[in-house]
Amino acid sequence: MAQTLRNTCCNDDSQELPAGFAMAEVIEINSLEELQPYQLAWNALHLQTPRASFFQTYDWFVTFWRHHGANQQMRVLIVRSSDSTIGILPLCIVEKEYRLTTVRVLTYPLSDWGMWYGPLGPNRSATLFMALQHLRNTHREWDVIDLCWTSGASGDGDATRRAMSAAGWQPQSAPHQESSVVRFSETNWEDYHRGLSKKWRHEIRRQTRNLQREGTVEFIRHRPQSAADGDGDPRWDLFDQCVEISRGGWQAKVTNGNTLCHDSVLEFLTDCHAQAARLGMMDMAILQFAGTPVAFQYNYFSRGEVSGLRMGYLSAMRDKGVGKLLLAKFIEDSFERGDQSLDLGIGEYDFKSRFRTNVETSYRYCYYPWNALRGQGVRLTQWLKQRLTNDRTVKETKAKPAIA
Questions:
Q1: Contact call for residues 175 and 363 (beta carbons, < 8 A)
Q2: In angstroms, how far is CA 292 from the centroid of its own chain?
Q3: Cα torsion angle, 249, 253, 258, 264, sign
Q4: Which residue of 238, 263, 267, 295 has the smallest Cβ count within 10 Å?
Q5: Pairwise CA distance, residues 284 & 240, whole Å
């Protein structure tokens, strides 16, 4: 299904479209078979996308869809001009269950596996503009637009707001997730290490000495080059060790979890591992003690940026501090490799706050059509919850005794 959108909108945003977008057309893709001819174009645009991650690759999308697409509707929007693909916006419609109804949500296909998502290509603002114009002019099969995992108003998030406003939609924005980040490019290992708390440095040294007195400690890290560069080695032995460590930790006791050891996602993550290794975008590390794998970190890698996916350690080794020791060695090794950053993932855990140098926030931009009753019901419910939360906070603040 293709629709040509010409630059005739009576809106200031339309005047900012780069050359090539004014007479562009938007082609909507609804199946993997239709998408396959655009694989090379997707790969080329990924190379031109700032901070593009493994989650934005064609291979990850196809792998994700084969495992999780059965209950979703694909809506990938291809922006083309003069027989060239100049932008891609991957979207999908997901049905979400609420207390009283089921709502059809148009969103990005990330499902909280990563921290960031958005359009592909160097002109992301224009791609968003053209794609949302297409959505405005086609039959609505969704109740809510929820574009999560975007940057704030100073970055792409502002482009999202402006594109939605240009389509005649008034978006509501709110913080979505916070992630702890180590910025290697802003310091060096010596200064970074000195910046850690004195107590934390002492604890790492003490636990390292204790562990080394009891047995041999070995740090193993594997980050292959791509298959195109003659590598792509997945090191399935190390991947299996990561899974086994996960099974021996607290994560295995979480019945609704999605860590490496859970059957609901293991096959999907295994297929992703093969693709990431082939692309040279996989990065994993193991800490072995006396020949036994005791802690792991599993990550994806793209252009100097490491995205932490999962980490864990054997429950029996918890008092030995093997998790923090592995992370400390991992960070030191990343400094030596010249990495740009390490995203430790969402969650306000104590160890993350001790190791991080920055906190980054992603945002969500939502639109609820006035004539979508189910969407308006969700909007009203969320407003009431926020109102009750705010009222409770005010009451608790007033109830606190004044400090003398």
A1: yes
A2: 31
A3: positive
A4: 263
A5: 11
What's the predicted TM-score (pTM) here?
A: 0.88
**What does each C-alpha distance from 38 to 35, 75, 100, 107 come to in angstroms?**
6, 14, 40, 21
Q: Show pLDDT as tens, one digit a residue, over the chain (404 residues).
A: 544 444 433 344 444 677 677 678 999 999 999 999 999 999 999 999 999 999 999 999 999 999 999 999 999 999 999 889 999 999 999 998 877 778 999 999 999 999 999 999 999 999 999 999 999 999 999 999 999 999 865 556 689 999 999 999 989 898 999 999 999 998 999 999 999 999 999 999 999 999 999 999 999 999 999 999 999 999 999 999 999 999 998 877 777 777 888 888 999 999 999 999 999 999 999 999 999 999 999 999 999 999 999 999 999 999 999 999 999 999 999 999 999 999 998 887 888 999 999 999 999 999 998 766 565 566 556 655 555 555 454 455 445 444 33
From the CA atom positions of the chain, what is the Rg in Å? 23
Cα–Cα distance for residue pair 57/59, rounded to 1 Å: 5
